[in-house]
Amino acid sequence: MKLSCKQIESICLGAVRIEETANGICFHRFTEKQEKLYEKVSADFYKKALTCAGVKLSFETDSQSLFLKVNVSAAPGRKYFSFDVFVDGKIAGYLDNFSQETLPLDYTKMQLPQGEFAKCFSLGEGTKQVSVFLPWSVAVTINELSVDDGAFIKPIRPKKKMLFFGDSITHGYDALRPSRCYTSRLAGAFGAEEINKGIANEQFFPPLAKTREPFVPEYICVAYGTNDWSRSTEDDFLERCYAFYQALSMNYPNAKIFALTPIWRKDYNEPREFGEFSRVHYDIQNVVKNFHNITCIDGFDFVPHDESCYADLRLHPNMKGLDYYYENLCEKLKNAIDVCCAN
């Protein structure tokens, strides 16, 4: 039984809208207004905005199989992708373009095929919960999603929403599996739906924060700063940082907002016009203390200062590095939320 666009929309999390085209079903994590903002900024950012970071299908079914046929097109950046299928919280299989490859230590520059891919997954007998994590690295069109004839499909939707803003690490770099992104795992730990607005190479962009989402999030995580340090002056950074957090705080006064400062990067001791890398944390901390609903969290030591934890050996965590990032951040957020609730 091939699922209709309406059925797929009912089980989709992380997309603010879904579009049915002549080629299949596309997923949008940014609103039309937000996409147009990025279209004006650069072709690079616009294409990255069309990727499926944070998009997930979540449902209960008694089907014993799941057939997935997709078409993927690479955004600027990474060429690898993976669809991760879970049954009752355990991995059932992957649809990807790299499992047959021997990955080098730095796998970020690998040239891998794009286009049409398909796979049938065995789900087992009985009623079960199924999750399909879509790749963060590519734009996706689903040509077909099918279950057994006569099987039922029941959406599973968390009651809370967790909104993420950030640069490449928030976008997903460099998780080989989307289910291992820190954003996906963090949303799961807090029983929330992930809505991911991460864009690789992005800085604080106030026009994005000023647009309102078609929902009210319980939690918001913001993780910019490392690209600001590399490419802007401190004065310009302070202006954009303040405007971004001011807009978020005004739009979502009841949300718990967390300002995550950047993790270690190999070149952090190199000179920049901005000044010392530590100034980024200091400045963000000073900016957000002006807002009642924003908590600053120091991320510098979340990932060990060791090349083996980074896919590109300098900046973007690999799977091991992302494990450290998630575990340390999750603990800090839970502690911060407990303090907020106590007050």
Molecular structure report:
The chain has 343 residues and is α+β, with helices and mostly antiparallel strands. Helices cover 29% and strands 27% of the residues. The protein has ten helices and 16 strands. The strands form three sheets. Strands 1, 4, 6, 7, 9 and 11 form a six-stranded antiparallel beta sheet that branches. Strand 6 and strand 7 form a beta hairpin. The longest helix has 24 residues. The termini are far apart.
Distance linking N and C termini:
52 Å
Question: What does the radius of gyration come to?
Answer: 20 Å
Structural class: alpha+beta
Q: List the total number of helices.
A: 10
**What are the low-pLDDT stretches, counting only 5+ consecutive residues below 50?**
none
Strand content: 25-35%
Overall pLDDT metric: 96
Q: Largest sheet, if any?
A: 6 strands, antiparallel
Question: What's the count of strands?
Answer: 16
**Strand-and-helix sequence, N→C?**
HEEEHHEEEEEEEEEHHEHEHHEHEH
Shape: globular
| Percent helix | 25-40%
Key attributes of the depicted protein:
six-stranded antiparallel sheet, 10 helices, 343 residues, five-stranded antiparallel sheet, 29% helix, globular, alpha+beta, 16 strands, single chain
Summarize it:
The protein has 343 residues and is of the alpha+beta class. The chain contains 10 helices and 16 strands. The strands form 3 sheets. Strands 1, 4, 6, 7, 9 and 11 form a 6-stranded antiparallel β-sheet that branches.
